[in-house]
Amino acid sequence: MITLYTNIKELIQxxxxxxxxxxxxxxxxxxxxxxxxxLVKNGFISDFGSMENCPKIDAEVTDVTGKMILxxxxxxxTHIVFAGNREIEFVDRIxxxxxxxxxxxxxxxxxSAKKLQQxxxxxxxxxxxxxxxxxxxxxxxxxxxxxxxxxxxxxELKMLRVIKRLKENxxxxxxxxxxxxxxxxxxxxENKEAYLQLLIKKVLPKVAQQNLADYIDIFCExxxxxxxxxxLILEAGKKYGLIPKIHVNQFTAIGxxxxxxxxxxxxxxxxxxxxxEDITALKNTTTMPVALPSCSYFLSIPYTPxxxxxxxxxxxxxxxxxxxxxxxxxxxxxxxxxxxxxxxMTPEEAINAATINGAYAMxxxxxxxxxxxxxxxxxxxxxxxxxxxxxxxxxxxxxxxxIFLKGKEVL
Length: 411
Hints:
This protein is α/β, with parallel strands linked by helices. The chain has 2 domains: 2-71 and 370-409, Urease, subunit C, domain 1 (Roll); 73-360, TIM Barrel, CATH 3.20.20. 35% of the residues lie in helices and 22% in strands. The chain has helices at residues 87-94, 99-104, 109-117, 121-136, 153-169, 192-209, 227-239, 256-262, 276-282, 293-299, 306-311, 332-343, 347-354, 356-360, 390-393; strands spanning 2-12, 32-41, 44-50, 60-63, 68-71, 73-78, 140-146, 174-181, 215-220, 243-248, 267-270, 288-291, 317-318, 379-382, 400-405, 408-409. Strand 2 (32-41) and strand 3 (44-50) form a beta hairpin. The longest helix is centred in the middle third of the chain and has 18 residues, at 192-209.
């Protein structure tokens, strides 16, 4: 099937294949073409350019006068496979309890793990596919999904099987991450080392054997897992070909950034607390820092110091952290807006962070994240808007008219 989109008010994020991600000052540059065309063939981007160079070919023509086209959002950090919700904890936080206090009382990740362990695989799939469909309709065209709410061998594998089913049943590119080291189960409270060995010796081999994950992750944080624990898990994952990612520097900075760099982590996520030495360590690496502003918004914790990091020459990606406890939303439009409003990122920086850099943080930079010949035709047609800056400006209104995955309209 061949479709030609004409009279595009502005075609956003047009890139050559050689660009994997953008850093520092380059994040301020968002290449676009005004009064453009876009040609899609068999689910892939075939051509694009100015209307004066629009090809005259036999194709289905769609006139999008007054509207813009940009690549779908690339959400590189989610936990959308979970059971139930945690709105009671939401109320507890309003009443003054901190995230850490709730976790100490048996809430938090352990609460979600208990619910998930009691949920059948089919029910978990049904709950999760509803969330996946929700984020697709909000413009997300590629997503990474983590385990980590199982915290037992059976439940972690159950989560990963659900992610695999989602991958098989939906057109959206999905990457799976094994996050067994998300928290220490209550039964291992006094013997964290035994739990780590369970993950390494029993769960990891099955994850690899059944081809259930692309990445391995760990929550490197005070009260959860140390830098030594992190290196242990990353080393174990490396033996099975799992690429590292780390939850790090969310509440405290304890050296996890340096551990991630040491193990060539694809991404380091959260980074709300960043020391000068952490920023310096990330310079000239291939590790993508990932900010999760919805989490900061929901928990009322500091935001990732995006301005400081970008001005230091670093790249940055944006993701939702969609999960039941600290970010019960997968809306990347809100993430982009919050990055502009609270983190002082320009619209250009935020869109770069939520598209091309987000794609890189999932290892999908050759498939999605930009309007590039040969990439998947995963894109958004906006409503009639004055400029792309209106997307974060109108933070409470979805400025999406149509959504396409592999060239097929889903909205």
